[in-house]
Design goal:
heterodimer, A: 451 residues, alpha+beta, 2 domains, two-stranded antiparallel ribbon, rod-shaped, B: 121 residues
């Protein structure tokens, strides 16, 4: 092989090694860049046939990314699960204070006080102060029921606002992916840019915390995002914005054509918000309304069956607006202490009707349970749901870390590995550089010899 | 059983489980192997706890709450273990599919190991 051929081969190898070094150094520089996937230089060997003038050596075969689709999707799925349980825990935590289970405050405390005042009234059925105390405690109970209902309604409004905000965030992130797709179409070389790739995957990971989606990589390198695997959010350089509608009975997510796609949102923070707004809160409010309605109806019915101090049929103690939800409008009527019916029609001046009223505290009045038991079950359900969500958050956080560890193992940057690569490349580079130096010197000698 | 004994046993079990959980944040075979001493430690502590409780039962809500916490942590540990296995299995299936394609049923094909029969007379 000629001296010139050897020189060309060595110089070519040197260029490839330089490029490999650049790649490795870029990997190390970006070790802490979020979602950066390391790259490696593919190296092809050249034919070595000295007789035919083929000097051998190596040729750069382009850059290859270590990013792995499976591990990325595993992280996204777990991010979606984490987002869901975290949002549920957060939303349930907001309403936890409204469900006191100690019996000393809130609805259970007010129920206790009301029936205690009825018990005191039964001892002195014609005492004005005892009668006034019953009306006062009834007012307190109604106010606590309204407070709880309004607290839940406030949580519903807050959840709706968050649904709008989350949908805005989803559209914003989808918009970034659309812009990245557009720039990719303008310059296809961006597909090989690790910084571009890292940006795209950072956005997708953020999106996974908000909503469940799938991605499709198109032949031109652009990414298609499908909400719930069905509804397009981004296709190439076009974005399809979703919207939240919260005016009706349930919060709804619609696509640009107005088609309801709510059922496709099952994970992520938006999934958690929708579950809370459309399922959990209505269930609690429904139970609270039933409690208020049944309590008012039963108390009023007992009072109506008795007679007051003037031997008139007993007046109603509670009123409510059924259309708006009994718990929201539960109030004490304009009843006066005299109008409370303590006695039965056959025994005016007695306390038989007050005793009937006292019975309501211990009898199964709603779903086979007392009022207190029914409320207790409601509070326990809420507590269990909150604990499950909090447990889920802790577990899903660990599972997310696990998925990230796998991704890092497969596609991330390991400084140890890169350090080894760097040393390997440095040694190869130094060896080639030494060879080139020797060849350079030999060339000089040869030229001088020719002269 | 003195309250100090069961407390110590549960604390030791919790510590073993917590360390195993920490290992399982990395879903590798090495990490799984690393959990074995921790799990053995937790198992040993629970064995001791069971023996002590059989000898002298402990009452009250405190041991119950402590064991409930342990149960939650063990549940979480199982989730992590299953999560690690799911990730590894998925990854292996992907590798198999890449290397060997898919079966007619759409499952990733398993790599065929070459066999050789050698007879000596």
């Amino acid at each position: 092989m000629s001296l010139f051929g050897t020189l060309v081969s060595s110089a070519g190898s040197l260029r490839v090694f330089e490029k490999a070094l650049e790649t490795t150094q870029n990997n190390v520089s970006n070790a802490s860049t979020p979602n950066f996937a390391k790259q490696r230089l593919l190296v092809d060997s050249l034919a070595f046939e000295p007789d035919l003038g083929l000097p051998g050596g190596i040729l750069s075969g382009g850059l290859d990314s270590y990013r792995d689709r499976y591990s990325e999707q595993a992280v996204w799925r777990r991010q979606e699960e984490y987002g869901l349980s975290r949002q549920l825990a957060s939303e349930l935590g907001r309403i936890e204070a409204y469900f006191d289970v100690t019996g000393g405050a809130g609805i259970p405390g007010a129920l206790n006080h009301f029936f205690q005042s009825v018990s005191s009234w039964s001892v002195v059925p014609n005492d004005a102060a005892a009668r006034a105390a019953v009306i006062e405690q009834a007012g307190y109970l109604a106010a606590r029921v309204r407070d709880t209902a309004q607290g839940l309604a406030g949580a519903r409004t807050a959840a709706e606002q968050q649904i709008h905000n989350t949908v805005d965030s989803i559209n914003h992130l989808a918009g970034i992916v659309r812009d990245l797709n557009a720039s990719l179409r303008q310059d296809y070389r961006m597909a090989g840019d690790p910084g571009f790739d890292a940006r795209l995957h950072t956005v997708l990971e953020q999106l996974a915390e908000l909503v469940n989606f799938t991605t499709l990589r198109q032949p031109d390198g652009t990414v298609t995002i499908l909400l719930g695997g069905q509804t397009p959010l981004v296709v190439g350089d076009r974005q399809y914005k979703i919207a939240a509608q919260t005016g009706g009975g349930a919060a709804v997510i619609v696509d640009p054509q107005g088609v309801d796609v709510t059922a496709q949102v099952v994970r992520g923070r938006l999934g958690g918000l929708l579950q809370h707004r459309n399922t959990t809160l209505p269930s609690y409010l429904n139970d609270l309304n039933r409690l208020a309605e049944t309590l008012a109806d039963r108390v009023n019915a007992v009072l109506a069956s008795g007679v007051d101090l003037n031997s008139q049929p007993g007046a109603a103690l509670f009123s409510y607006d059924g259309a708006a939800g009994a718990a929201f409008g539960l109030r004490v009527t304009s009843i006066t202490p005299d109008q409370l019916a303590a006695a039965l029609p056959g025994a005016p001046g007695g306390n038989a009707n007050v005793l009937n009223l006292m019975e309501l505290a211990n009898s199964a009045e709603i779903d086979g349970a007392t009022f207190m038991q029914f409320y207790g079950a409601l509070a326990r359900n809420m507590g269990r749901a909150l604990e499950t969500a909090r447990e889920g958050t802790r577990t899903n956080e660990l599972l997310l870390l696990q998925a990230r560890a796998l991704r890092d193992e497969i596609s991330g940057v390991s400084l140890d590995e890169e350090a080894i690569h760097l040393i390997q490349f440095q040694r190869a580079y130094q060896a080639s550089a030494r060879l080139v130096t020797v060849l350079d010197e030999l060339t000089e000698i040869a030229i001088n010899l020719i002269r | 059983m003195g309250s100090g004994e069961w407390r110590l046993a549960i604390q030791e079990a919790l510590a073993g489980v917590a360390e195993a959980q920490a290992h399982l944040r990395t879903p590798t075979a090495e990490a799984l192997e690393s959990t074995w001493p921790n799990l053995e430690r937790a198992t040993g502590a629970l064995h001791r706890l069971a023996e002590c409780l059989r000898a002298a039962p402990a009452g009250g809500p405190e041991p119950h709450c402590a064991l409930e916490s342990l149960r939650q942590e063990v549940t979480r540990l199982r989730s992590l273990l299953e999560g690690a296995a799911a990730l590894r299995l998925g990854w292996a299936q992907r590798l198999y599919a890449t290397a060997c394609g898919y079966t007619p049923q759409g499952q990733p094909a398993m790599p065929q190991v070459a066999r050789r029969l050698s007879l000596q007379g």
